[in-house]
Sequence to fold (195 residues):
Amino acid sequence: MKDKKNILERIGVIGIVLTAITSPCCFPLFGILLSALGFGSFEIFGGVTMYVFLIFVVLSIIGSLFSFLYNKKILPLLIGIVSGLLVFYNYFFDSKGYDTLYIGMFGLIVASIINYYETRILKLMKNNGVVLKSVISCPHCGHQKEETMPTDACQYFYECEKCKTILKPKQGDCCVYCSYGTVKCPPIQAGENCC
Fold:
């Protein structure tokens, strides 16, 4: 199921690129680039090109939302939503300029690439039996809380929500989870160097 959700975003982005490359009238930048490279141009979708393009944009945004539900990474979702809105703004309100259209299109591609790598990292961690939850204990007041450890960065500081003490890693440890957590951080669990 998770793979299908990620595929939805990829289908959307591939469709966006395919539609843009093969529609030089609607996307003159690609027509110029293809002509400069010696390729001819042709229309796949004819008079419905922009409708097909908008459908692929919607698929990409929906796929980005599903990726967020899986990865819990907000940045690619925000990039995807803002980029999609730019495309729709261009189509419905600013059809004379192409700036917002291209920015939106490239933003959707960037969001898809980020989601692809985030999903890959998360799957790799899960396949290696890496645990992402750790109960962190404050050495000052004894307060404990279960937290989800980041997979893409070390956490050097942690504020205890009870006594407000800022915890730092002990000498020789790479992060607060290795020092005060019930489970070491994901890179250490996977047998890699941490940060």
Remarks:
- The helical segments are 2-21, 28-36, 49-71, 74-93, 99-127, 176-180, 186-189.
- The chain has a mean pLDDT of 78.
